[in-house]
Specification:
This protein is mainly alpha-helical. It is built from 6 helices and no strands.
């Protein structure tokens, strides 16, 4: 019976849970931010250089402006998410872009909704301790937890 409780204590150790949480948020930021930047963002930059007027205009802002806003989200904001810098703020344009891509441009597009769910989870969890946000907050002495 003592061994069972030892396994239980090992599984639910608070320090280990914090490590798993930090590792999970880091991996989410790295994977979904990096994948957005590399597989979607760079292509949009190339599209802007070729013919920005061919880009869809789903919310009536004009093709060029829509493409510029998507580039901002998929390149700049995705890079900020990877770095963990201004993470929650950078997630807002990405979430908006994925809502438009997943439910307006292509109804319930699996890739866009997967990114959307990951970004919503990151918005709720925050960047974690392995981020520039945490480093800056620790230097300023303004950590909400620790």
């Amino acid at each position: 019976m003592r061994q069972l409780f030892a396994v239980w204590d090992w599984c639910f150790d608070e320090r280990r849970e914090q490590l798993y949480r930090d590792c999970s948020t880091f991996l989410l930021r790295l994977w979904f931010g990096g994948a957005m930047l590399v597989s979607h963002g760079w292509g949009k930059i190339a599209r802007f250089q070729e013919d920005p007027s061919a880009f869809r205009d789903p919310i009536g802002l004009g093709s060029e402006l829509s493409l510029l806003l998507v580039i901002f989200a998929e390149v700049i904001c995705a890079a900020l998410v990877v770095l963990g810098l201004a993470t929650r703020l950078a997630l807002l344009p990405l979430i908006f872009t994925m809502i438009i891509a997943g439910f307006v441009v292509n109804w319930f597009h699996l890739s866009a909704t997967s990114y959307l769910v990951a970004y919503l989870v990151l918005l709720m969890l925050g960047p974690g301790r392995w981020s520039l946000d945490f480093f800056i907050a620790r230097k300023r002495g303004s950590l909400p937890f620790d």
